[in-house]
Write the structure tokens for this entry.
Amino acid sequence: MATRNHVPAAYRALEEENAPELATALLKAALQFSGHWQNNKNAAALLAAVKARPAGFRQRLVDALAETLSALADDSPARVNVLAVASAVGRGLAWAEPLTAARREMLDEIGRKGDAHYHGWVPELVGAELAEGRTVPPAVVACVRRSALSTYSYQPVIALAAALTEPVLNVGEAWADRAMADGERWHALLAHAVTATAAKPGGKWEKTGRSLIAEAAKETGEDEVRERLLGWFRLVGAPRTLALDEERFGPDPNETYDPYNANALRGLAWVLSFLPPHPDTARVLGALAETALRKVPGLGPRGPKVANACVTALSRIDGEAALAELARLATRVTFKGTLKMLDSALEARAAALGLGREEIEELAVPAYGLTAVGRAEHALGETAALVEVRGTKALLSWRSAAGKAVKSVPAAVRRDHPEELKELKAAVKDIDKMLGAQAERLDRQFLARRTWPYGKWRERYVDHPLVGTLARRLLWVVDDTPVGFADGELRTLAGTPVTEGAQVTLWHPVDREPAEVAAWRDWLERHGITQPFKQAHREVYPLTDAEVRTGTYSNRFAAHYLRQHQFHSLAAVRGWRNQLRLAVDDTAPPAVRELPQWGLRAEYWIEGDSGDGAYEDITDSGSFLRLRTDQVRFYPIGAPQNTAHACGGEYTMWLRGGEAPVDPVPLAEVPALVLSEVLRDVDLFVGVASVGNDPTWQDGGPGGRFHDYWNAYGFGELSQTAETRRLLLERLVPRLAIADRCRIEGRFLHVRGELRAYRIHLGSGNILMDPGDQYLCIVPAGRSASGPETGYLPFEGDRTLALILSKAMMLAADTGITDPTITRQILRERA
């Protein structure tokens, strides 16, 4: 081994005081140990022996190392070892210019690294800077600290990081740079925040934190302290001020949180909870929690411990605003660890008030200053500010003393009422976020088996200033009588007002006669009501003959190819539990949705798509890009878990401690509502995440492997969702300005342009041109939504429906298309 050869040679050169030969032997030993001298007793002893020699001999050794460095190419990896050895043995000695210049370059390189735990020369080089009394560059300090917090950190790096006490935070992140620039009076608080390395604040940590925050508040005032901290938080997630070099493997360090600073963020979040409650505190903590959970390729959520700290802080803050943020986050967060904390926090609040979890979520929705359902008017001097909820958005408008609409914020309001203006703008943003969260919560109520006493339901839903804007666009059942809200009253289909009742439930089409469903659709259309999600037009999935034959499983959504990460996100949003499939020798359960109110567990069986066994279609982190889908099954909720190999294979029940296997529940015994809603979820997964939806895959994707599937999906039979879309388009198209150019036949919306005729598939939105069934690729530029061009839509959320209508509008006037990527296809194929 090299250790047996180079170390003895180095000792011989040391005895002979032959500096050039010792330099060569030391460099060879450095190669053997990759600079990790402290990990080998023989190497460490050799280094100690060299350091013990007189300064004169060590100076000759450093000069010999400088000569070696001069002979190396600029890109030689051996330069690192020369610097490492020189740093170890040359402290207190003069360095020739080549070594000095290389030292500066290497320090710059360290400062650009996300971490350096694999580079054993780092502690020697940086330690030499400290030993020589030189100031270590802040970017280098940041790298060392990050490296010390790495999972596989090198012990000398950990020791070195402990000696680096300045600056108080790591440079390179906008929020940290601002915090340090705000002055030394905040440094003691920041230094304490950095020590927040536990999951929750301990007693001693909290006592010190409260003392520091009280001292700061005494000096500047509580409001100033709060606004200062919130100002830092608002910068979290901004682009780095010092860019880091991307690593060959792993996530981009510029997209992740600095782990050292993340500890400080955790501590500062806790400290905020020590101040008196304030709406801004809850607002910013909620926003930071969401920001921290944004996913980074190859990593997942970029700052889960920061998000968890925000939840901990919110759970410790009294008042409506903090409770509202907890409830809102519970509908938005999908990361398992944080969601568990949110659930615990809400359960604790509910228990403290003697309420159920569902009730606490209902009571947690603030009015945000709205004084009537979806509306509030505020007098600011002679100007009136009007906040109105329209659909999914809150709008802020202005009127003069004469009642005339004003386009922008009046100067007098900006001058005389800055705080009120700030709060109004913040409330509008809060309403927008809460509307989305409440729509998702209401959409999940179909499987919650919820009933409400009429009085509480009116208070918390129909007459609630914010929730009422959603509830009044839905259908309900009051004592077995279906009702909707129109002309200021709850009304039956016949228009009869309903002003009292005992029990209320949410209306669902699965247990209604087709004639009633059609009548309510007409009613919504007649009153111009756009529902916040599909209800009257909701797809229903009754048991099929094929499912009666299979008995215990449905193959309705088997044999599809889904984009794994998109499926994973969708599943989480819809309340399913899923585990990413990695190309490793491991097992994983199916995607699961637990239905405790029904005593059932729904499973969607999936497996990683290995690319015909080549394992080429995986990410850098080892997860499959795509999944293959299989059966949907139901089990009793307490049944043992099924698992299968992550790379594919048969699912088997994992039995422990003498457990007996449990049979799946026959589909005929699954309640119709449960079966329909679960299959609707799965239809959504396929409809959104299928590779058949990618308009650029007409060649079949990688290697053409998906050619047959893409064609079959992109132009094949309609799913239940697409069938619902077809029925709706049959009603909408005749009212369009281009109605004379459109017709619906089978699976397609036919559009006649001036240059070509087109067929838009009602499932995928893909387009064929006539004659010749030539494919037209149109890649959407962004999110499609209903608007002036598409006209009235009876519900929100069907992006494909809006996309089909917008494509139809464009293609009917194909001579006006200016996008060359589209016109080239039309004209080339036409020629």
The first helix runs from residue 2 to 15. The first strand starts at residue 295 and ends at 296. The chain has six domains: 2-163, 174-351, 375-440, 443-525, 545-681, 716-830.
